[in-house]
From TrEMBL, chain A:
Residues 322-415 form the BRCT domain. Residues 439-452 have a biased composition (Basic and acidic residues). Residues 453-481, 492-508 have a biased composition (Acidic residues). PANTHER family: PESCADILLO - RELATED (PTHR12221), PESCADILLO HOMOLOG (PTHR12221:SF6). It comes from Papilio machaon. The lineage of its organism: Eukaryota, Metazoa, Ecdysozoa, Arthropoda, Hexapoda. PROSITE patterns: BRCT (PS50172). This is Pescadillo homolog. Belongs to the pescadillo family. InterPro entries: BRCT_dom, BRCT_dom_sf, PES. Residues 439-537, 586-608 are annotated as: Disordered.
UniProtKB/TrEMBL annotation, chain B:
GO terms for cellular component: nucleolus; nucleoplasm. Residues 308-321 have a biased composition (Basic residues). May play a role in ribosome biogenesis. GO terms for molecular function: 5S rRNA binding. It comes from the Eukaryota. It comes from Papilio machaon (Old World swallowtail butterfly). It is found in: Nucleus, Nucleolus; Nucleus, Nucleoplasm. Pfam families: Nop53. This is Ribosome biogenesis protein NOP53. Its main location: nucleus. Residues 284-293 have a biased composition (Polar residues). Residues 262-274 have a biased composition (Basic and acidic residues). Keywords: Nucleus, Ribosome biogenesis. InterPro entries: Nop53/GLTSCR2 (IPR011687).
Length: 608, 475
């Protein structure tokens, strides 16, 4: 008996993959429908390890799919719906061809819509999964919300995107979830945090719609992506609003409800509507309280037990807490030349109130003449009428304050001032081992104080005086401590002597000796508080660390070594540059001093 | 107050009878009074001000409004909306609520159109009496239908927490069974199995690991610091240099391999080649001045002398053999000598070999690292078309105005997104094929009945059409 010969490519990589054409045949779909269902279901083409084998010996590069993926698609109920749609499309085509327009309109009216909410649930089994994948979704939705109706994009899609994006912004405002902002040439980068997930998205600058050249982007595909993303964003919004005790859907301005047939013909009118919608506070669910503040973090003894990390985490939490209420109770007024949308969003995110000129745009809440306005945001060199009760600052102040997480001093951002650079908050933390000149450090960390803060030479002497004073103070403090201890020792000594004297009076010397011995045996010596030797502890810690280093696996040892060497090297470089800077500064100081002395001498000589 | 009742003899034999005929009203009144006093306080203890009010207004007479009494007809009219007495028996008397909140409405008797009413209605309809009404009704119906549909659409409401555990639909219960009156057993019976028949394969690695929104370079800020902007420009320069190098290489390898000829040179070359072998025009410079060689008689003489088969003699053969053997011997000797010297060279050789091995090993590691880096960032090859390589964002110094009002951008965010999807492997790169529109040429088919007037009319019509189309486009 000869066993049956195995056919080539019936197992292994050849059987694992399937070309697109084969997939179309298997699913009995047209390419258009296949593309759509792939995007909706999250099925992507694959890159095989061995292309020749995966393509069953055929050359060239073909688009391949996992056979398993295609089999998974085979069970999707939407496929049946797509086939129904095909029938409908045929009917419509026929009606058009036979010029039965009434019939055609009826078919168009009753055109079934595909419901894909089960796919959202399937692709993102938990809410956190959905949040994790929100970057792309938000960026595309914000982008599409600026589009007019285009041929390949469904008409209501951009309206839906507008609504959903504004709703999401409201959720961010209510949750105070915004963390970072960055104005780039591309657009505004925002980063928010929900349930521990950071979400980054880009909002384009508001230019009027730029016509896209046709062969660059496939609008049909992008609009299919948006179709899925709007569904997902809707459910995410629903969940977010409910977790924040807000009513969903929120009642926004008239431009966002599909019921009204009011057309916002003017692009500016639409933008104004959108911003006005942002400035409305959303209705709370009746009888619900404020979302309670997160309690302070509990301190757990983690495995590595790094107190420094714990401290850092605590500091971070504290900072975020500060950030959340940064603008609370402050009133802002936006001048009309300022980009209002990002500013309204950001200010409202951190608890501020915003308004603008009510003659120009809808939705203003208070007037410019309101005396309780704390800041007026201005982007012009000067203004005719200024109020004394408020600060006039440039818009960058808001963005930089958010990134610094405190209200920055406004002196650099006043009206007409040359602005300091707008730094990116998205800089890697890993790359912290770089030399930063003191000026840059002062920019990034407002608490940082350069060692020699005296810009002018006249303060040098004073500074040295101060140093001396400080030293004196230190020494005096030390003296105080010494005096205290001395006093204490004296008192103790006195006590003991007095007791001894009492004993002396009564007893003979022999007995005294005996008693003394007895007393020695029985005496309770004064306890010495256990003092941890910090140096000793440091040594022990170091030893423990070295032991742990030994436990690094052989696989990772080289990597670890190189990492350590790199760290050392960078540290050394930084140290070297700092030293150079210090020497340079000292030299400059010396020179200045000498110069001054010279001048003084000259002046003296001139007078004498 | 006690009414004096006429005494009547009744039996008070048992408890029931006793209770029935015993008058305890006065006792109860008394107790009631007492309770009232306990509740409100004693009458004597109350102050006058609490009990009495000074009347300052005097008695008011109710204003007499002159109301006409209802006429009989009006009275009857008023009774109309009430349910007739005869139907009161049919009304529910129980206080228990109807368990079915949405009971089907049954038309009351008498509302059904009779044959006669139908007929008259039809007649009036045909006359056109209801035209406006019908139009209005149709419109209303359409509005209601649209509204209903819009409300139903999940895209407008999203009123479902798909990640919540408490929603029935989420548990997999069919929506037709999510009703109040369906028992949980019945609902659970219809739940689909939790375990999927085919678990969904994991998405490709490139899609999971690569970020959707890449964190921007700090130099793309609208108001960057000098250092960062220079850094960005440096990146762009490096990228551009790489491209230029590649291009130069391509040029060197292809175009510059071949020498170029000007058309003039080519022409000359062609002329030369074509005129090969032809008698050349007399050139006195070329022609030998001294006719000394030429003056011999015109006898034919070959340039190469004829070959002769001259045999080698024995001596020559021996000498050749000896020469070869000597050469061979020397070669051997040299090799033997080298063998001896190589023993002394062994250590040097070893270091040479080990050094080379080490270098190769280091190179291999380096190459592997580079390959890994490329694999980490390279777009997956998903189709015959190649994904465009990412280009660093260029912000020209002229673009940096430093204020938010005058930001100008050259970046197309949509294309950026599209390419990002391609780079992550969510889309296969493709070339968009634009459908070419057929250009139909319209012409007038001449027939035997066509006059010049017809042709003119046709042309005129066409012109009008064209102009209107243009107008629409310009709008």
């Amino acid at each position: 008996m000869v066993s049956k010969k195995k056919k080539k490519y019936s197992s292994g990589e050849g059987a694992q993959f399937m070309t697109r054409k084969a997939a179309l045949k298997k699913l009995q779909l047209s390419l258009k429908d296949f593309r759509r269902i792939c995007i909706l279901k999250g099925i992507y083409p694959r890159e095989p390890r061995n292309r020749k084998r995966a393509q069953k010996g055929a050359g060239g590069i073909k688009t391949l799919y996992h056979t398993k993926d295609i089999k998974f698609l085979l069970h999707e109920p939407i496929i049946w719906k797509l086939r129904d749609l095909k029938v409908f499309q045929q009917k419509i085509r026929k009606a058009r061809a036979t010029r039965q327009f009434g019939q055609m309109r009826k078919y168009l009216r009753d055109y079934p819509s595909i419901n894909i909410d089960h796919i959202v649930k399937e692709r993102y089994p938990t809410f956190v999964d959905a949040l994790r994948d929100l970057d792309d979704c938000l960026t595309l939705c914000f982008l599409f919300s600026t589009f007019p109706s285009i041929k390949k994009v469904p008409r209501d899609q951009s309206l839906l995107c507008r609504r959903l994006s504004v709703e999401f912004m409201h959720a961010v405002i209510a949750a105070k979830a915004l963390r970072k902002v960055f104005i780039s040439i591309k657009g505004y980068y925002y980063q928010a945090e929900f349930e521990g997930q950071t979400i980054t998205w880009i909002v384009p600058h508001h230019f009027s719609f730029q016509p896209q050249s046709k062969d660059e982007v496939d609008f049909k595909i992008m609009s299919t992506f948006v179709e899925f993303y709007t569904m997902m964003l809707g459910f995410v919004n629903f969940k977010l609003f409910h977790s924040l005790n807000l009513v969903y859907p929120p009642q926004l301005t008239a431009g966002f409800t599909p019921e009204t047939d009011k057309d916002l013909v003017d692009e500016h009118a639409y933008v104004a509507e959108r911003i006005a919608a942002l400035n409305i506070s959303v209705a709370k669910i009746a009888g619900s309280n404020e979302v309670e503040e997160l309690p302070e973090i509990d301190i757990f003894q983690t495995e590595d037990g790094d107190p420094q990390k714990l401290e850092e985490a605590k500091l971070e939490v504290e900072k975020v807490k500060n950030l959340k209420t940064m603008f609370k109770g402050l009133k802002f007024f936006l001048n009309r030349e300022v980009p209002r949308e990002p500013l309204v969003f950001i200010i409202r995110c951190f608890g501020g109130e915003v308004s603008w000129d009510k003659d120009h745009f809808v939705g203003a809440t208070f007037d410019e003449s309101d005396e309780s306005i704390a800041y007026q945001i201005v982007d012009r060199p000067s203004m005719d009428k200024q109020y004394l009760s408020r600060y006039y600052v440039q818009p960058q102040w808001v963005f930089d304050s958010v990134n610094a997480r405190t209200l920055l001093p406004i002196n650099k951002y006043l009206m007409g001032a040359v602005l300091p650079p707008h730094l990116s908050p998205f800089v890697d933390k890993i790359k912290d081992q770089v030399y930063m000149p003191p000026e840059e450090r002062a920019l990034k960390d407002p608490n940082f104080k350069p060692l020699d803060d005296e810009p002018s030479g006249s303060d040098i002497e004073e500074a040295s005086d101060e140093d001396a004073e400080e030293k004196e103070e230190d020494s005096s403090e030390e003296d105080d401590e010494k005096a205290l201890t001395r006093q204490y020792q004296q008192e103790v000594a006195e006590d003991s002597t007095s007791e001894d004297e009492d004993v002396k009076d009564d007893l003979d010397p022999e007995k005294k000796k005996l008693a003394k011995e007895k007393k020695k045996a029985m005496a309770v010596s004064t306890g010495v508080t256990h003092k941890e030797n910090p140096y000793q502890k440091e040594i022990e810690d170091k030893q423990a660390f070295r032991l742990r280093e030994k436990l690094v696996r052989k696989k990772h040892r080289n990597l670890y070594k190189s990492m350590k060497a790199g760290q050392e090297q960078r540290k050394k470089e930084i140290w070297l540059l700092r030293k150079k800077r210090r020497l340079h500064d000292e030299k400059v100081k010396e020179e200045k001093k000498a110069e001054k002395r010279k001048q003084k001498m000259q002046a003296l000589e001139a007078t004498s | 107050m006690s009414l004096i009742k006429k005494k009547k003899h009744v039996s008070k034999k048992n408890k029931k009878a006793w209770r029935k005929h015993c008058d305890i009203k006065d006792v109860e009144d008394f107790l009631e009074d007492q309770r009232l006093e306990e509740r409100l306080g004693k009458f004597e203890a109350k102050k006058d001000s609490e009990l009495f009010v000074v009347d300052t207004v005097g008695e008011e007479k109710p204003e007499v409004v002159d109301v006409k009494p209802l006429t009989l007809k009006q009275k009857k009219r008023a009774l109309l909306p009430q349910t007739p007495k005869c139907y009161e028996v049919l009304l529910p008397t129980s206080k228990v609520q109807d368990p079915n909140a949405k009971r089907n409405h049954v038309n009351p008797v008498g509302t059904k159109p009779t044959a006669l009413s139908k007929l008259s209605l039809k007649k009036q309809f045909e006359k056109g009496a209801y035209l406006k009404k019908v139009e209005l009704a149709r419109k209303n119906r359409r509005i209601v239908r649209d509204k209903k549909r819009r409300i139903k659409e999940i895209r407008n409401t999203f009123d479902k927490n798909i990640w919540g555990e408490d929603v029935l639909e989420v548990k997999g219960i069919p929506s037709t069974l999510c009703d109040d009156f369906i028992s949980t057993e019945a609902q659970l019976h219809n739940v689909l199995p939790e375990q999927r028949l085919r678990p969904k394969p994991a998405p490709p690695k490139t899609l999971v690991t690569r970020p959707a929104v890449v964190t921007p370079h700090p130099g793309v800020s609208y108001n960057p610091s000098y250092q960062e902007h220079q850094d960005l420009l440096q990146q762009v320069v490096q990228h551009e240099e790489k491209l230029m190098k590649k291009e130069a290489h391509l040029h060197r390898v292809t175009t510059s391999l071949f020498s170029r000829l000007t058309p003039h040179e080519k022409e000359n070359q062609w002329r030369e080649e074509m005129s090969e072998g032809l008698p050349k025009p007399h050139n006195p410079a070329n022609s030998p001045s001294t006719p000394s060689d030429n003056d011999t008689d015109n006898e034919y003489k070959a340039i190469n002398p004829p070959v002769k088969n001259k045999k080698k003699d024995h001596k020559a053969r021996r000498k050749q053999k000896e020469r070869i053997a000597e050469r061979e011997r020397l070669k051997r000797e040299k090799i033997d000598k080298k063998k001896i010297t190589d023993i002394y060279k062994l250590r040097k050789l070893q270091t040479l070999i080990s050094g080379k091995e080490k270098r190769e090993e280091a190179l291999r590691v380096k190459r592997a690292a580079r390959r890994a880096l490329v694999a980490a960032t390279a777009p997956p090859a998903l189709s015959a078309h190649r994904t465009p390589a990412p280009q660093p964002d260029l912000v020209e110094p002229a673009q940096l105005t430093g204020d938010l009002r005058n930001i100008s951008s050259t970046v197309n965010l949509l294309r950026d997104r599209f390419e990002s999807l391609q780079r992550r492997g969510a889309l296969a790169a493709s070339k968009l094929m634009m459908t070419k529109r057929k250009r139909l040429k319209a012409y007038f088919k001449p027939g035997h009945k066509v006059t010049d007037q017809d042709v003119e009319n046709y042309l005129k019509k066409k012109m009008v059409k064209k102009t209107t189309k243009k107008a629409v486009v310009t709008k």
